[in-house]
Amino acid sequence: MGDKPHWEGIYRDKAPDSVSWYQEHPGYSLELIQAAGIGKGQPIIDIGGGASRLADLLLDADYKDLTVLDIASTALAHAQRRLGERAQRITWLEADATDFSSGRRYALWHDRAVFHFLTDSADRWRYLDNLRQSLLPKAQVIIATFAPDGPEQCSGLPVVRYDAAKITRLFGEYLVLQETRNEAHRTPSGKVQHFSYFRCSLSAIPLSRDVRNGYSHRAIFRE
Ligand SMILES: C[S@@+](CC[C@H](N)C(=O)[O-])C[C@H]1O[C@@H](n2cnc3c(N)ncnc32)[C@H](O)[C@@H]1O
User: Fold this and answer.
1) Pocket test for ligand 1, best of 114, 116, 160 (most atoms within 8 A of CB)
2) Max CA-CA distance within the chain?
3) Tens of pLDDT along 87-121?
4) Is 83 exposed, middle or buried (0-12, 13-18, 19+ CB in 10 A)?
5) Domains of the chain with CATH codes
6) Cα 171 to chain centroid, rounded
C-alpha cells in the first residue's frame, strides 16, 4: 500500500517546484496524451498527479473531463491553489492507487512516477486490477517510470525500473505497447534522471475473454 504519511510530509515540507520530479512543462505527457487521440470530452485520470502542472496544460488544451488522484491531500491542495478558480473544473480524488474505486471508467489513464514505487508484487496486482476496472473499451494507458539507467530511488523510496520488454511482459496481452519515449529529466538541482514513457492501448481480446470467462487479473497480467 502507498506510504501516505511520507507523501503528506513531502508536500507539507517542500515547495512543489523544488522536488526532484518537478517539471515546469510536462511536455512528454501532454504529447503522448495528444497522440492517444481521444476526444476532448472523454474522461482522463492522472494517477498520482500530485502538484503536477499537467492538469493546467490539459485544461489549456481544452480537455474537459479531468480527474487527478493522489494519496496526499497536501499535494492536491498545492495544485488547487495554483489553479485557483480553474480547480473547480477538475475532479480531485484523495486515494491510494492500489486501493480505490472511483465508480467511473476512463478513456485515458496517465501515471508519471507512481507505478514504479510499487516494489511489492501484491501492490502491483492491486494497482493493475484497479486499472483494469477503471478503463473504458479502447482506452489508452500512459505510464512513465524510471528507465533501467535511471535512479534506484526517488524521494528516499526504492523504485522498480522498467524498459519496454519488462513492462510488456507485465501487461501481457492485456495492454498493447504503442509507443515508448525516453526522457532525460533535469531535476531542479540540475541532476539528470532517465525516464521511459510507455503508451499502451487496451486490447479487446483479453477483455472479452475476461468478461466471458471470469478470468482473474493474475491470468491477464504476467510477471
Ligand atoms: C514522484 S511524484 C510524481 C507526481 C506527478 N505525477 C509528477 O509527475 O509530477 C509521485 C506522486 O505519487 C503520489 N503517490 C505515491 N504513492 C501513491 C499511491 N499509492 N497512490 C496514489 N498516489 C501516490 C505521491 O503523493 C506523489 O504526488
Assistant:
1) 114
2) 52
3) 999 999 999 999 988 889 999 999 999 999 999 99
4) middle
5) 4-220 (3.40.50.150)
6) 15
> Is residue 222 predicted with pLDDT exceeding 80?
no
Q: State the Cα–Cα distance between residues 67 and 78, nearest whole angstrom.
A: 15
Q: State the SS3 of the chain.
A: CCCHHHHHHHHHHCCCCCCCCCCCCCHHHHHHHHHHCCCCCCCEEEECCCCCCHHHHHHHCCCCCEEEEECCHHHHHHHHHHHHHHHHHEEEEECECCECCCCCCEEEEEEECCHHHCCCHHHHHHHHHHHHHCEEEEEEEEEEEECCCCCCEECCEECCCCCHHHHHHHHCCCEEEEEEEEEEEECCCCCEEEEEEEEEEECHHHHHHHHHHCCCHHHHCCC
Count of all residues that appear for the chain in the document: 223
Grid coordinates given for 110: 496517465
Spell out which residues line ligand 1, taking CB within 6 angstroms: 2, 7, 21, 48-50, 52, 70-72, 75, 96-98, 112-114, 117, 154
Q: Which amino acid is at 48?
A: G
The three three-digit cell numbers of residue 74, written as one number:
497536501
Q: Which three cell numbers stand for residue 36?
A: 492517444
